[in-house]
């Protein structure tokens, strides 16, 4: 099979590998679609010294396809089933945090694209507990968004206890940020969507944002007393992180979604607001069923978030598109070469 590796320093390498075989309680998925996530861009840019042993692990975690083989003990899936990998951080299943449902916090977890071979190869071996049946109504390209962007957004809004009538700000309108707007609108929140890129702001308006502004415009609004009950920071940009604290009303909640940033604020910024800073990390396995149900009813809206379709041979173009804030999520079509 064809597989892409990230050796470090924004380089890619394509090599041929043997397709994996499933072990006990594992399946092999033959991909039909996969995508480029912001996390992939971070890994791509890591220096070779940081990549180290991970340079040999196929990156990527947005996995959509059909079961091509099932190992001993697999009973919920059959060859030919359409599936999506919904548990991206796979806990041991036995420790205290796993038994509480927080598999992503397991100290012995496996992670697609980090410790387990990921979706930049045609075949992905996965524990059967990490995958979910795809509803007929959810097409493969939309399921790429469901695998990570939508599920991360859904879980972050739950962590932030966002509900009807809440005033919220969504800072950063990449795939996760736009999905956050879509879900929050469905839940009855009033949304201020913030991004420096006009095309992204336009998409947010079409998904239900009530106010769309640039970061500079948000500064002006805050100077006039504007505030929100919850802010979801989805960019990882230091300026947006600062705004996510400053924009809070008394008792407000700031949810940290974007990776790669470094929060820098005075303790008094939280204390004088009696605010709460909340971390969130991917989607709980039990939540993913709700995410799939949400996707069934919002296929048309999710399609608006899709960008160009490419083959894996165009991986460098795909990564540059994501890095540069290009419109929509890049989707790899794995069926074109078959």
Task: Write a brief structural summary.
The chain is an alpha/beta fold and 338 residues long. 31% of the residues lie in helices and 25% in strands.
Overall description:
- With 338 residues, this protein is an alpha/beta fold.
- It folds into two domains: 2-150 and 283-333, Medium-chain alcohol dehydrogenases, catalytic domain (Quinone Oxidoreductase, Chain A, domain 1); 161-279, NAD(P)-binding Rossmann-like Domain (Rossmann fold), CATH 3.40.50.
- The chain contains twelve helices and 17 strands.
- It has helices at 38-45, 48-51, 96-99, 140-159, 175-186, 198-206, 215-223, 238-246, 267-271, 287-296, 299-303, 315-323; strands at residues 2-5, 13-16, 26-35, 63-70, 82-85, 89-90, 110-111, 123-127, 131-133, 167-171, 190-194, 211-213, 228-233, 248-256, 276-279, 306-310, 329-333.
- α4 (140-159) crosses α10 (287-296).
- It starts with a strand and ends in a 5-residue tail after the last strand.
- The mean pLDDT is 95.
Shape type: globular
In CATH's first tier, which class of the largest domain applies?
A: Alpha Beta
Sheet bearing the most strands, described? 7 strands, mixed
Total helical elements? 12
Helix content: 25-40%
Low-confidence stretches: none
Helix and strand sequence? EEEHHEEEHEEEHEHEHEHEHEHEHHEHE
CATH architecture name of the largest domain: Alpha-Beta Complex
Could you state the CATH homologous superfamily of the largest domain?
Medium-chain alcohol dehydrogenases, catalytic domain
